[in-house]
Amino acid sequence: MIVYLQMIDTPEDRSKFEQLYLEYRGLMFHAANQILHNEQDAEDAVHQAFLSIAQHIQNIDQPISSKTRCYVVTITENKAIDQYRRRQKQTITDTTSMMAYTDSDGRMISLIYSRGADATSLFLLPQDAEMQTVSVNGQDADFYLESDPESANALVWLSASGDTIYCLTAPLPASTLIQIAESIPT
User: Fold this and answer.
1) What's the rounded Cα separation, in Å, for the pair 75 and 147?
2) Is 135 helix (H, G, I), strand (E, B) or coil?
3) Is 169:150 a contact under the CB 8 Å cutoff?
4) CA–CA separation, 24 and 51 (whole Å)
5) Partners of residue 86 on adjacent β-strands
6) Following CA atoms 42, 43, 45, 51 in sequence, which dihedral angle do they give, to the nearest 10 degrees?
7) Neighbours of 167 (CB within 10 A)
8) Could you tell me which of 2, 66, 80, 96 has the fewest CB atoms within 10 Å of its CB?
9) What are the φ and ψ backbone dihedral angles of 140, each rounded to 5 degrees?
């Protein structure tokens, strides 16, 4: 905690940070570990979150409140997601392929597919997208509808053999993405 306290100027803000640290460090670790599933990575994300909180401690009125709790959990989750994305960039191997093209209307359509047990972790889909279960060649698939019509929707499905996951993204409706998906040899 000394490292964080050295970043803070006033005794009042240091006291506020100490209270916050003691109250929320366990919750923050839990939130990060739920995303990362790795204790060391979760500790790193919590450390990054505390650095950010220390830099902005003057913006916190009450160290122990529901508003502060939401604030520290949000920062921690964002740091964990950043860490997860960095880790994913490092672990993509030759078992993952991507193809992209632009259709006649200028819309970008991309297909990513990956083989292996942990392939589903490659696809971080927006949390605010509406998810619907659809069918691709008789297999259940997840269709993620973006609230912004300019954003790409996503269709994610597993091959019949269960060893490859596909993610098709484009600003197209579910029916069109399903048609494209069904034309892909799996």
Assistant:
1) 24
2) strand
3) no
4) 14
5) none
6) 160
7) 21
8) 2
9) -65, 140
Please write the tens of the pLDDT for every residue from 19-50: 999 999 999 999 999 988 889 999 999 999 99
Residue with tokens 């960039």: 89
Percent of the chain at pLDDT above 90?
40
Helix-strand-coil percent breakdown of the chain, rounded to 5?
A: 50, 25, 30
Mapped onto helix, strand or coil, the DSSP state of residue 101 is strand
Angle between helices 11-36 and 66-91 (to 10 degrees): 50
Q: How many CB atoms lie within 10 A of CB 71?
A: 17
51-96 tens-digit pLDDT: 999 999 999 999 999 999 999 999 999 999 888 877 765 544 446 6
Torsion angles phi and psi, residue 109, rounded to 5: -125, 125
**Block residue for tokens 């197209």:** 172
In angstroms, the first-to-last Cα distance of the chain is: 52
Tokens coding 20: 């916050």
Rounded distance between C-alpha atoms, residue 86 and residue 57, angstroms: 27
Closest listed residue to residue 174, CA positions, set 150, 155, 147: 155
Single-letter amino acid code for the residue at 11: P
- Show Cβ contacts of residue 93 under 8 Å, excluding neighbours closer than 6 positions: none
| Among candidate residues 121, 127, 125, 113, the one with its CA nearest the CA of residue 164 | 113
Q: What is the helix (H) or strand (E) element at residue 42, kind and residue range? A: helix 39-55
